[in-house]
């Protein structure tokens, strides 16, 4: 969702630079010509935004449905294995509840956005033109990782960033 907002805001700022069609129509209107109707055809930019929003929403719900289907499949597989293993009813319920708990925990982790604040820097192991590499410990799990932190403003200033085509 955040990526869509960022993309939408970039387009919004580009629109501010262009004169609006209503202003152009008002400036080009002659006395005696018909006044513009209340409904105008959507501009190309608006059509692009609509298409992008539609695509984003469709992708989002496809991912959700796929995820739901995968969870159901995992549950069915576990139920079949438990039935074949002749496990007691109480033990089956406990294992199914455990699976549900793990699935919920996993979905919560998927929604969490990871950032530099989630890590505790330990030592710097390298420094380059655009940033630095540090050994860091993740606060939640205490796992140790190498983190490369880049200065995007410096990369943009030197023209080293390739922007994706829209």
UniProtKB/TrEMBL annotation:
Protein species of origin: Corchorus olitorius
Any GO MF annotation of the entry: protein serine/threonine kinase activity
Region (Disordered): 1-50
Keyword Transmembrane helix belongs to the record: no
Keyword set, alphabetical order: ATP-binding, Nucleotide-binding, Phosphoprotein
Compositionally biased residues, Basic and acidic residues: 12-25
Catalytic function, reaction form: L-seryl-[protein] + ATP = O-phospho-L-seryl-[protein] + ADP + H(+); L-threonyl-[protein] + ATP = O-phospho-L-threonyl-[protein] + ADP + H(+)
Annotated ranges, domain Protein kinase: 119-166
InterPro entries found in the cross-reference section: Kinase-like_dom_sf (IPR011009), MobB_NdrA/B/Cbk1 (IPR059233), Prot_kinase_dom (IPR000719), Protein_kinase_ATP_BS (IPR017441), Rho-assoc_Ser/Thr_Kinase (IPR050839)
Chain sites annotated for binding ATP: 148
UniProt-recorded name of the protein: Protein kinase domain-containing protein
